[in-house]
Design goal:
The protein has 341 residues and is an alpha+beta fold. It contains 14 helices and 12 strands. A hairpin with a 5-residue loop joins strand 4 and strand 5. The chain is flat.
Length: 341
Amino acid sequence: MFHSALSALTFSSGEFLTITESRGLSGAWSWVLMGGEQIWSPGFFRLLGLVPNAAKANYDLLLSLVHPEDRHLMPSLGEVRQGHVPRETIVRVIRPNGTMRVLSLVMEARFSGDGRPVAVNGTALDVTDREQLAQMRQEERLRRGALYLTEHITCFSIGLDNRFEIPFEVAQVHGQPYEELCTNPYVMIVPEERSAFQEAAQEQIEKQQFFQGTAHERLANGELWHFKIISMPVRDPDGTYLGRCGLKYPVRSPSPTAAVLNEGLDQAVSGHHLRAARALLDWSMMDLAQASGLSHSTVRRLEEDREHRGSRSRLQAVASLRRSGIRFILMDDGTLAVAKS
């Protein structure tokens, strides 16, 4: 009796397939080679962006929907008829409405007793989210690697197993084995500072507290760089400790990126910033015009925000204010403050 009651609560394989297909997650297809009959499940139609049974199941139709750059990954008609199909292939599909999905296609050829291919079966799974996430992670790895190669700046994480996750390029820059750095990044620090820094860092890591410190590290080319390293604990919304995240960057003055930042700040200066700067200097609009070599009407347009952000006039006005002791400071919350030296 218990067994019959349990059976009533369980799904058959067909019911399970129907449920997953109805959510647009999967589909199936088959091709009987001798008779030429091709069958697509309703879910397979939906994966391709087609109304179930509104179009005739056809391998040519499937190929036409596969992204042109991915079609070489699909077996040709001749290869399918000979039973030469890949076990799994991942391709992009462009639906009739223009949207694109990524499908994992698993194919299996069936053979007669004498070895002749008689049918090909396939299943499809929508893996768009998985592939997009993998692509994003790869792009982020490339960005982090490029940043360390050019500026020696990187973020890192520390897992519950105390293993460090760092870009591979860190090992390249410092000439150290990558696997060793993942377990003991302190080997990058010069010997005379290593023990004290590691002891201080490990103490804060064990206490699950914020840590910051500076250390000198030798690069593979022999240069000695001074770095600041910051790390902090990461917890989930329930307060469970998940590990640490951190940031490492060179201690240098002036920063080689200061000029780039100043240019961006200059373009972010708005009319109310200019008015505030004039007030600090006790200047009139005419005073600013004379100091910057601009006309009175141009200064008025700048203060009324009727000049585009990248205008040369804005840069001239800001430069004259800087020369007179005005500083434009980017605050932690992203706002721009005006101060007088």
